[in-house]
Every structure is written in C-alpha cells, then in structure tokens.
Amino acid sequence: MTIPARRVVVVGAGVAGLTVTATLAAAGLDVLCLEARDRIGGRVLSVDVAGGSLDLGATWFWAGERRVQNLAAELGVQTFEQHCAGAALFDHPAGVLRLDDNPIDVAAGRYTAGAHSLTRALASTIPAPSIQRSSPVTSITTDPTGLLVDTATGASHAAHVVLAIPPALAATTIDMRPGLPNRLLRLAQSTPVWMGAITKIVVQYPDAFWRRQGLAGTAVSLLGPLRELHDMSGPHGNPAALFGFTTDMTPDTVNMNTRVLSQLVRLYGPEAADPIRIILQDWSREAFTLPAGVEPSTNYALFGHSLYATPTFDGRLHWAATETSSVHPGRVEGAIAAALRATQAILANLNGPRQKDYTEVGRH
Ligand SMILES: Cc1cc2nc3c(=O)[nH]c(=O)nc-3n(C[C@H](O)[C@H](O)[C@H](O)COP(=O)(O)OP(=O)(O)OC[C@H]3O[C@@H](n4cnc5c(N)ncnc54)[C@H](O)[C@@H]3O)c2cc1C
Predict the structure, then answer these.
(1) What contacts 8, CB < 8 A, 6 or more positions away?
(2) pLDDT tens track for 69-106
(3) From the CB of 131, is ligand 1 less than 6 Å away?
(4) Based on CB atoms within 10 Å of each CB, which residue in 46, 75, 87, 363 is the most buried?
(5) Is the pTM of this model over 0.85?
C-alpha cells in the first residue's frame, strides 16, 4: 500500500496539536488529529459560569509572547489585562503581612471568554472531520511506506506523525515499533510534564470583595494549602474569583475545601467564607496529562532538548508539545512554537530534501 505523502496524523488536540492541524490543513494537507479525551484543549480547560468563564488550566500570556498574541488577534479572540492593582499579602507563621503595593504579579494578558476561547477558535478553523475525539493512540508502527497509528477503534496510515503530547506520556503510553532510539527514549521518559503535578483551586464569589479592601487578591503563603494565590476575576471583576496552586492534595475533597476556605478567611477576612463554588482541578490525576505511576521529574533543563527538533523514524515522527520547545517551554507560547517547528519540518520535507533537524523560528 502506498501512503499519500500529504497524509499527516497528529496525536493530541491541545494547543500544539490544534496549531499543527490548522496550519497543515490550511496548507492543503490531508490531516487527521486524534484526541484521547472527549474534549479538545488539553491543559487549556475552562468552565462556563454565569457572566463568564473560569480557567482550570492555563490562564495568562505575557509580554514578549508574540505567537500567542498574534494567534489570538488573528482568530479574533478577545483579551484583557490581569487585575494586579492593590496590595499583595504574605502569609507566614507569625501572621499575614500586607505588602506595599504588589511586588508579586507581573503584567499579564487574559482571555476574556476564558482560555478555552483560544482553543475553540483554533479548532473552528479546522474541518470538523479532521479532529477525532475519544481516540487515544495506543501504538505507532513503522512500515516500508510510512507509519501506522493505532487507536482502539481503528488504524490510520500516514507519511508523517506529530506527537503533540507531553514526551513522558508518549514514551510510557504509546507502543512504538520499533522502539524509539535509546537516547531519545530516556530523554522523553525524564522530561517533566509542565504543571502536571499541580492542583489548581478556583473559588468563585458573588463579587471581588478583596478589591474593596485595597487588595490585589495576590498572596504568597508559607502555610498553605495554597502556596500562591491570584485574582481570577473576569473583565471588570465579573465573574469574581480567586485561584491558587497546591501540590498538597489529599484524596479528601471536602477536607481540602475546608482547609482552603480557612486559609482564604485568614487572608481576606470573613467574606471569604461564603463562596458560590470551589472547583478543584487535580492535573496529577489526569491520565492524558501526567503518566500514571511515573514520579514527576523536575529536570526542566531537558525542555526544548535538541533531540526533539530532529524528526525520527526516517524523518517521519515529529515532536510538538510545549515541553519540546526551545522557546517559552511550558507555556502556551511554547506549544505554538513547537507546533510551528513541526509543521515547518513537514512542509520542508514535501518541498525538498529532508533536513537533519529544525529549531523554532526566532529565538525569543
Ligand atoms: C494548572 C495549569 C496552569 C497553567 N497556566 C499557564 C499560563 O497561565 N500560561 C501559559 O502559557 N501556560 C500555562 N500552563 C501550561 C499550558 O497549559 C501548556 O503549556 C499548554 O496548554 C500545553 O499544550 P500542549 O498542546 O503542548 O499539551 P497538552 O495541552 O497537554 O495537549 C496534549 C493533548 O494530547 C492528548 N493526548 C494525550 N495522550 C494522547 C494519546 N495517547 N492519544 C491521543 N491524544 C492524547 C491530551 O488529551 C491533550 O488534549 C498551565 C498549565 C496548567 C496545568
């Protein structure tokens, strides 16, 4: 069987996989994006509530991240500035210290309708049949004409495959035949999954009452359970919310909610005791983010390793998750940069002889 040279399978429909799929589809290639979950977006996940959306994964973008800003502008995705005005708090054993101003937050951009407005807008540029949900890829096999990609419900042949999933997940959950070269396999197994061991806790309130006290909503805590807190309200404070990160998760959600509220009352006063809702998003339990049973690695020096810029399996297998980017790895910006590097490799291959490796275009 001959595989059409323009047939590409993309594994994963997070920011990276969607960017690859949209870019290659726009260039006229025959692209199929296989997504394990029943939703797109990956680590971009928002829930809609009255008056707006709350982000349970990525929230911000920062100055200098031109790819994500250009993408949002091209797609017509509305953005606004993160609320930073007011005093920040330092929560330590001797008490709560109110800092002059807010030395903790840096200026950042947010997505008005939640971070998922970016991934939804991106997906809307892709012909619907090109994204297949609930289709975890289980194996990738080389054959003389290309690569065979298996899911529980079927197999797809492709000239090129793009792994737009965290490398550690690819190395531990996808059966590669033959196996990946040893160095690459070891690298992928040890590359951390950015924010993969984090729980994000979002607490929604009827209004942003902390702003009336001159507080930014930002805090750093030595006591926990939330180690770092920020204002997560939408534009003009609606919907009103605070969020924090913790790695200190117990299986007992009720107990965690009580501990979080007690911390919020300590920091922001009695009004913090009456939220509309508390949402816990434990990314460490997401089988399609962090590989089960794998000790989370923290060797971030492996992010953007040069081996990820070298297509393997005779130049047919490409890497595109944020962890593989040499610029802004871990960020949405890094996911877009890695995706554009992979698409560049595939398009260059169609139009001429293969290069040995590719790096992200523009080093910042
Ligand atoms: C709590 C949290 C807060 C964050 N905050 C920010 C922030 O403020 N700003 C920022 O820039 N970044 C932030 N990030 C990071 C940002 O979310 C990621 O950089 C980005 O979303 C990664 O995109 P990706 O496409 O590389 O990977 P992912 O989003 O992980 O996408 C991978 C996709 O592949 C799918 N998949 C996995 N295995 C398979 C399989 N076998 N077959 C098929 N599909 C598969 C997954 O379901 C997923 O949809 C945050 C992340 C978290 C978790």
Answers:
(1) 20, 24, 29, 30, 31, 32, 158, 159, 160, 161, 162, 346
(2) 999 999 999 999 999 999 999 999 999 999 988 999 99
(3) no
(4) 46
(5) yes
